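To close the section, here is one more complete example, presented without commentary so you can practise reading it yourself. The ligand is nicotinamide-adenine-dinucleotide.
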Amino acid sequence: MSTYPDLNLLIGGETIGTSGRETIDVLDPATGEAIAGLPKASSADLDAALENAKTGFATWRATNADKREAILRKAAGLIRERAKDIGAAITREQGKPVKEATGEVIYCAMLLEFYAGECKRLYGRTLVRPDGQRVEVRHEPVGPVAGFSAWNFPALNVMRKIGGPLAAGCSVIVKPSEETPAGGLGIVQAMLDAGVPGDVCQAVFGVPDDISRHLLGSPVIRKVTFTGSTAVGKHLAKLAAEDMKVATMELGGHGPVLVFNDADVEKALDTMASNKFRNAGQVCVSPTRFLVEEDVFERFRDGFVERAEAVKVGNGMDDGVDMGPMASERGPDGIQSKIADAKDKGAKLLTGGERIGNQGFFHQPTVLSEVPTDAEIMNEEPFGPVAIINPMSGYDAMLEEANRLPYGLAAYAWTQDTKRRAKLSSEIEAGMVGINAGSVSAADAPFGGVKWSGYGSEDGAEGVTACTVTKTIHENA
Ligand code: NAD
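Output:
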């Protein structure tokens, strides 16, 4: 078993360990046992972090884009070099198979390489009037940013909180999840080791609501960026509004998957079944409601069950494991109650449905079918390894069901019909749409949702401009 790193706060370039601070236990979800203590930032620590963020912002925004780019590229290199170690720590604290965890860290490096290039691509524009007047439009860094992220991608969620602000010229204080701190600390430490000043990129931990109230209560912070549930997102958006801070909200979803009669069913099955059980279903863009046209329904349903039953569940550190435990006790408890509710309301349980063993937080890959619309799981994100496969017929009914919920993060469709693809692309209410595609994430493409799934984007050029404010200068000759 790999060693798990010591955990610390990173404030002003200083590594602050557990000595003299209250701690929070970090658990291994494969055993349920504590593997490390995480120091909580005191109120004085947070004040120091805010003061640093102010000075750090002044330095970083004045640092030449070439230099910022070089530092971020160096950090990306360090992240690549350390991917195996950071990946192993992620598996210990979060549960996902180590191959998946290492892949997550490599993806962070790719994302950072893109963001590094964006340091030099923050273009403005100039309007030249016939009388010699010039109007210059600039994108300036918004100011110090506070980032709060969820536990499902311990490194990637933090990378997304840091990359845009640093490329735009902002300083950032990040609070990775207290349940999975090592992945995010690995990313922040790589930044510091590559030469990002200690007052420009900092990491704190504590009681989430206390930390966010403290940081967002300060006029120093000019933007908040959050990855997590819609309930917490609404709360943080209200706190941001008190001081007119800019906000980016990456919140929950309830991914519909429309499988039409003309779909390449085998390809759809291979792609979407492995997507469903990736990270034990704890992915905000996870496919959840499979709406399958009647002619292909039985084939799709049976093929999905076959693939669910072939998923090898086990400790993510072991070879050949496809799916690890869920990240915390809340995971299996939450889906157990949703499965029971769906069965009570008439849903068919086709496979799975139970916790595995009495150690750790394992749950069987599960498939429910013919789930009525009033079942909780049809309305609330399961955030676990449960697929809902319902028969439907006709474009209009499928689209109506896809758009029924207040969420709009990722949506998927499988069809060969180009006209239908074009129509669906416009009519589906989602921030990201996969058509005959299972992945909706790429470093150079914006990632984010609509409606209750949030607003603003991370990644792509939009992820950087989201960390800027516009200034227009009208200048006479
Ligand atoms: P949650 O919102 O309770 O917690 C998510 C994270 O936010 C945790 O790390 C927690 O420490 C932090 N947090 C909680 N309250 C906070 C507060 N007041 N201030 C600052 N930080 C706070 O959600 P959860 O149930 O633990 O996580 C799963 C949810 O997150 C799902 O709904 C999922 O869709 C969503 N999520 C969304 C994305 C995305 O990119 N859209 C990515 C991952 C997870």
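Once you have examined the tokens, check your reading against these statements. Residues 148, 150-152, 177-178, 208-209, 212, 227-229, 232, 235-236, 250-253, 284, 381, 383, 409 surround nicotinamide-adenine-dinucleotide (CB under 6 Å). The radius of gyration is 23 Å.
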